[in-house]
Request: fold
Amino acid sequence: MKKTIFITGASTGIGKATAIEFAKEGHNLILCARQIDKLETIKEMLEKQYEVTVEVHKLDVTDYDAVKQLSEKLKQSNVNIDVLINNAGVASGLDKFQDSDMADIEKMINVNIKGLIYVIRELLPLMIERNSGHIINIGSTAGIVAYSKAAVYCATKSAVKLLSDGIRIDTIDTDIKITTVQPGIVETDFSTVRFHGDKEMAKAIYEGIEALKPEDIAEIIVYIANQPKRVQISDIT
Ligand code: 8X3
Reply:
Protein backbone atom coordinates (compact mmCIF):
# COMPACT_ATOMS: atom_id res chain seq x y z
CA MET A 1 0.00 0.00 0.00
CA LYS A 2 1.25 3.45 -0.92
CA LYS A 3 1.86 5.53 2.18
CA THR A 4 2.38 9.26 2.67
CA ILE A 5 5.62 10.07 4.42
CA PHE A 6 6.22 13.50 5.92
CA ILE A 7 9.85 14.41 6.61
CA THR A 8 11.28 17.53 8.25
CA GLY A 9 14.83 18.63 7.53
CA ALA A 10 14.54 16.73 4.25
CA SER A 11 16.98 18.82 2.20
CA THR A 12 20.19 17.09 3.35
CA GLY A 13 21.69 14.28 5.41
CA ILE A 14 19.48 11.67 7.05
CA GLY A 15 16.30 13.47 5.94
CA LYS A 16 17.22 13.43 2.27
CA ALA A 17 18.50 9.84 2.40
CA THR A 18 15.25 8.79 4.06
CA ALA A 19 13.19 10.49 1.37
CA ILE A 20 15.11 8.57 -1.29
CA GLU A 21 14.71 5.26 0.54
CA PHE A 22 10.92 5.66 0.87
CA ALA A 23 10.66 6.75 -2.78
CA LYS A 24 12.43 3.52 -3.80
CA GLU A 25 9.58 1.68 -2.07
CA GLY A 26 7.01 3.71 -4.05
CA HIS A 27 5.68 5.89 -1.23
CA ASN A 28 4.52 9.47 -1.65
CA LEU A 29 6.41 12.17 0.14
CA ILE A 30 5.84 15.52 1.79
CA LEU A 31 9.24 17.09 2.27
CA CYS A 32 9.90 20.12 4.45
CA ALA A 33 12.99 22.22 5.04
CA ARG A 34 14.07 25.84 5.03
CA GLN A 35 16.04 25.36 1.79
CA ILE A 36 13.23 25.02 -0.71
CA ASP A 37 15.56 25.04 -3.75
CA LYS A 38 17.24 21.85 -2.51
CA LEU A 39 13.82 20.26 -1.96
CA GLU A 40 12.76 21.19 -5.51
CA THR A 41 15.84 19.39 -6.86
CA ILE A 42 15.09 16.29 -4.76
CA LYS A 43 11.44 16.34 -5.91
CA GLU A 44 12.47 16.50 -9.56
CA MET A 45 14.96 13.66 -9.14
CA LEU A 46 12.57 11.36 -7.25
CA GLU A 47 9.53 11.94 -9.45
CA LYS A 48 11.60 11.23 -12.53
CA GLN A 49 13.09 8.05 -11.12
CA TYR A 50 10.21 6.52 -9.14
CA GLU A 51 6.40 6.22 -9.34
CA VAL A 52 5.84 8.72 -6.54
CA THR A 53 4.48 12.18 -5.94
CA VAL A 54 6.59 14.54 -3.92
CA GLU A 55 5.17 17.67 -2.32
CA VAL A 56 7.68 20.20 -0.99
CA HIS A 57 7.19 22.95 1.56
CA LYS A 58 9.50 25.67 2.77
CA LEU A 59 9.27 25.27 6.52
CA ASP A 60 11.20 26.50 9.51
CA VAL A 61 10.06 24.20 12.33
CA THR A 62 10.80 26.92 14.88
CA ASP A 63 8.04 29.07 13.39
CA TYR A 64 4.91 27.81 15.13
CA ASP A 65 2.54 29.83 12.95
CA ALA A 66 4.11 28.34 9.82
CA VAL A 67 3.80 24.81 11.24
CA LYS A 68 0.15 25.48 12.11
CA GLN A 69 -0.57 26.86 8.65
CA LEU A 70 0.96 23.83 6.97
CA SER A 71 -0.99 21.38 9.11
CA GLU A 72 -4.19 23.35 8.39
CA LYS A 73 -3.44 23.15 4.68
CA LEU A 74 -2.92 19.38 4.87
CA LYS A 75 -6.16 19.02 6.80
CA GLN A 76 -8.11 21.08 4.24
CA SER A 77 -6.81 18.95 1.40
CA ASN A 78 -7.53 15.71 3.29
CA VAL A 79 -3.93 14.57 3.25
CA ASN A 80 -3.37 11.67 5.62
CA ILE A 81 0.14 11.36 6.96
CA ASP A 82 1.05 7.73 7.58
CA VAL A 83 4.58 8.30 8.79
CA LEU A 84 5.95 11.53 10.27
CA ILE A 85 9.72 11.65 10.47
CA ASN A 86 10.98 14.42 12.72
CA ASN A 87 14.49 14.69 11.46
CA ALA A 88 15.10 18.46 11.56
CA GLY A 89 17.76 19.02 14.18
CA VAL A 90 20.93 20.96 14.74
CA ALA A 91 24.13 21.09 16.76
CA SER A 92 25.51 24.61 17.01
CA GLY A 93 28.96 25.16 18.47
CA LEU A 94 31.24 22.76 20.32
CA ASP A 95 32.23 24.61 23.48
CA LYS A 96 32.42 24.02 27.18
CA PHE A 97 29.05 24.97 28.64
CA GLN A 98 30.59 27.91 30.52
CA ASP A 99 32.00 29.32 27.27
CA SER A 100 29.09 28.61 25.01
CA ASP A 101 27.25 31.20 23.03
CA MET A 102 23.65 31.87 24.01
CA ALA A 103 22.62 32.17 20.35
CA ASP A 104 23.92 28.62 19.75
CA ILE A 105 22.15 27.34 22.85
CA GLU A 106 18.86 28.92 21.88
CA LYS A 107 19.08 27.66 18.32
CA MET A 108 19.48 24.04 19.50
CA ILE A 109 16.61 24.32 21.97
CA ASN A 110 14.38 26.01 19.40
CA VAL A 111 14.97 23.51 16.61
CA ASN A 112 15.54 20.27 18.50
CA ILE A 113 12.94 20.66 21.23
CA LYS A 114 10.46 23.41 20.41
CA GLY A 115 10.37 22.67 16.67
CA LEU A 116 9.81 18.99 17.39
CA ILE A 117 6.98 19.82 19.79
CA TYR A 118 5.35 22.24 17.32
CA VAL A 119 5.28 19.68 14.51
CA ILE A 120 4.00 16.81 16.66
CA ARG A 121 1.46 18.98 18.48
CA GLU A 122 -0.05 20.02 15.13
CA LEU A 123 0.12 16.73 13.22
CA LEU A 124 -0.60 14.17 15.94
CA PRO A 125 -4.28 15.24 16.34
CA LEU A 126 -4.78 14.51 12.62
CA MET A 127 -3.42 11.02 13.20
CA ILE A 128 -5.58 10.54 16.30
CA GLU A 129 -8.68 11.47 14.26
CA ARG A 130 -7.91 8.54 11.94
CA ASN A 131 -6.52 6.33 14.71
CA SER A 132 -3.50 5.62 12.57
CA GLY A 133 0.00 6.93 12.03
CA HIS A 134 3.62 6.48 13.01
CA ILE A 135 5.89 9.18 14.40
CA ILE A 136 9.61 8.55 14.11
CA ASN A 137 11.79 11.02 16.00
CA ILE A 138 15.50 11.30 15.35
CA GLY A 139 17.31 11.42 18.66
CA SER A 140 20.96 10.58 19.15
CA THR A 141 23.33 8.52 21.26
CA ALA A 142 24.13 12.01 22.59
CA GLY A 143 20.74 11.83 24.28
CA ILE A 144 21.81 8.75 26.23
CA VAL A 145 25.32 9.69 27.35
CA ALA A 146 26.61 13.28 27.47
CA TYR A 147 29.97 14.18 26.00
CA SER A 148 32.37 17.06 26.41
CA LYS A 149 31.43 20.50 25.03
CA ALA A 150 27.95 19.40 24.08
CA ALA A 151 25.88 19.66 27.27
CA VAL A 152 22.99 21.51 25.65
CA TYR A 153 23.01 19.47 22.45
CA CYS A 154 22.94 16.27 24.53
CA ALA A 155 20.15 17.66 26.71
CA THR A 156 18.05 18.44 23.62
CA LYS A 157 18.50 14.91 22.28
CA SER A 158 17.60 13.47 25.66
CA ALA A 159 14.44 15.56 25.42
CA VAL A 160 13.64 13.92 22.08
CA LYS A 161 13.71 10.50 23.73
CA LEU A 162 11.54 11.51 26.68
CA LEU A 163 9.06 13.40 24.52
CA SER A 164 8.66 10.26 22.43
CA ASP A 165 8.15 8.15 25.55
CA GLY A 166 5.63 10.57 27.04
CA ILE A 167 3.64 10.87 23.83
CA ARG A 168 3.66 7.07 23.42
CA ILE A 169 2.08 6.79 26.87
CA ASP A 170 -0.48 9.50 26.08
CA THR A 171 -1.53 7.72 22.88
CA ILE A 172 -1.51 4.21 24.33
CA ASP A 173 -5.26 3.88 23.70
CA THR A 174 -4.75 4.49 19.97
CA ASP A 175 -3.05 2.57 17.16
CA ILE A 176 -0.45 5.31 16.75
CA LYS A 177 3.19 4.27 17.05
CA ILE A 178 6.08 6.38 18.31
CA THR A 179 9.71 5.47 17.72
CA THR A 180 12.97 7.15 18.69
CA VAL A 181 15.94 6.47 16.43
CA GLN A 182 19.23 7.24 18.17
CA PRO A 183 22.16 7.16 15.77
CA GLY A 184 25.78 7.60 16.77
CA ILE A 185 28.16 9.55 14.54
CA VAL A 186 26.76 9.91 11.03
CA GLU A 187 28.77 11.67 8.35
CA THR A 188 26.54 14.51 7.09
CA ASP A 189 26.59 18.32 7.06
CA PHE A 190 25.95 18.03 10.81
CA SER A 191 29.52 18.95 11.80
CA THR A 192 29.90 21.70 9.20
CA VAL A 193 26.78 23.32 10.64
CA ARG A 194 28.03 22.73 14.19
CA PHE A 195 31.30 24.53 13.32
CA HIS A 196 29.43 27.38 11.66
CA GLY A 197 30.60 26.43 8.16
CA ASP A 198 34.21 25.44 8.93
CA LYS A 199 34.65 22.43 6.66
CA GLU A 200 38.18 21.60 7.85
CA MET A 201 37.13 21.32 11.48
CA ALA A 202 34.11 19.28 10.41
CA LYS A 203 36.25 16.89 8.37
CA ALA A 204 38.54 16.26 11.33
CA ILE A 205 35.63 14.85 13.34
CA TYR A 206 35.27 11.92 10.94
CA GLU A 207 38.99 11.23 10.49
CA GLY A 208 40.19 7.81 11.60
CA ILE A 209 36.72 6.40 12.19
CA GLU A 210 34.19 4.72 9.95
CA ALA A 211 31.17 6.91 10.60
CA LEU A 212 27.66 5.78 9.80
CA LYS A 213 26.23 6.97 6.48
CA PRO A 214 22.86 8.70 6.21
CA GLU A 215 21.70 5.79 4.03
CA ASP A 216 22.31 3.37 6.92
CA ILE A 217 19.88 5.29 9.10
CA ALA A 218 17.41 5.74 6.24
CA GLU A 219 17.24 1.97 5.70
CA ILE A 220 16.58 1.43 9.39
CA ILE A 221 13.80 4.03 9.38
CA VAL A 222 12.12 2.27 6.45
CA TYR A 223 12.44 -1.05 8.29
CA ILE A 224 10.78 0.45 11.37
CA ALA A 225 7.96 1.94 9.29
CA ASN A 226 7.37 -1.33 7.43
CA GLN A 227 6.53 -3.38 10.51
CA PRO A 228 3.02 -4.83 10.81
CA LYS A 229 0.44 -3.06 12.95
CA ARG A 230 1.13 -5.32 15.95
CA VAL A 231 4.82 -4.40 16.08
CA GLN A 232 5.93 -1.11 17.63
CA ILE A 233 9.65 -0.47 17.87
CA SER A 234 9.94 2.09 20.63
CA ASP A 235 13.68 2.78 20.40
CA ILE A 236 16.59 1.83 18.26
CA THR A 237 20.17 2.86 18.99
C1 8X3 B 1 24.98 13.30 16.66
C2 8X3 B 1 25.76 12.32 17.41
O1 8X3 B 1 28.04 11.88 18.44
O2 8X3 B 1 27.98 13.06 16.31
O3 8X3 B 1 23.70 13.36 17.16
O4 8X3 B 1 27.28 14.17 18.32
S1 8X3 B 1 27.35 12.91 17.63
Summary: The helical segments are 13-24, 36-49, 64-76, 102-130, 151-170, 190-194, 199-205, 214-225. The radius of gyration is 17 Å.
